[in-house]
Amino acid sequence: MAKAKKAEPKEKKELTYEDYSKAVLLTGFVAAVKNELQHGEHISAVRFVPILDGYHIFFNNDIRECKIAVEKRRLAKGYKVRKLEDGFKKVSCSLKSKDDYEKVIAKVFNKPKAKKSKKK
Q1: What is this structure's pTM?
Q2: 3-state secondary structure of 110
Q3: How far apart are CA 88 and CA 86, in angstroms?
């Protein structure tokens, strides 16, 4: 019988601050979308699918099949968020920081924006 070789430990990669902040940004946004879907009406068959450098969120809204694709931008900072309904792109926007959560969620779920009051 041949002796089994011992597995050598792999080199550990250092986690950079930039990688950590991107992961926090992505998970925070996915949690915000999950919260929005739980409170939404006529939403069913929700699936969260992690992909390399992003997330795909599938759900049915009434009779339409919807998909929210959150993918890391190649050349710029942050993530690109797209909403597709029945395979057609409806919304596309950029997510760069935690401050953008509300704006992007409002745009993706077609919520009315709060109007600013005019100063006298």
Answers
A1: 0.76
A2: coil
A3: 6
